[in-house]
Amino acid sequence: MTYFSSASASARTSPTEWPPLKLYLRETGRQSFSVGDLVYLQAVANYSWLNWVDGRRMLMPRTLKYYSPKLPTELFIRLHRNCVVNRRYVDRLERTDTGGLVHLSTGEVLPVSRRRWSTVRRQLANNMPHLMN
């Protein structure tokens, strides 16, 4: 269970000041996690995998539709219908026949849908010109 008040965080709030995600974990109870440490979210049916920079993966009983509006838009980009990534951890982009791939600094590779490829490329190119070959 996550409590997050998007009304308290204005659109002008910088990502470092963004309120932490408060997640309920069965083993340890309620804990706060920095949004900046979240590398990507991946949907599987009505659950979401939250993947953190320290290598932790958490399966949460919420959809991406629940989490997406609660994340800072200046940090997170929707790559696919089942994946949202933190742009801080994007190393490079690669174009393929089926859309594209995003290579992360963690060594993972995530697909980008054909439909979203141009938007993702444009959003990443604005802030990170080194990504474009």
From TrEMBL:
Gene3D superfamilies: LytTr DNA-binding domain (2.40.50.1020). Pfam families: LytTR. SMART domains: LytTR. It comes from the Bacteria. Residues 23-126 form the HTH LytTR-type domain. InterPro entries: LytR-like, LytTR_DNA-bd_dom. PANTHER family: STAGE 0 SPORULATION PROTEIN A HOMOLOG (PTHR37299:SF1), TRANSCRIPTIONAL REGULATOR-RELATED (PTHR37299). This is LytR/AlgR family response regulator transcription factor. It comes from Spirosoma soli.
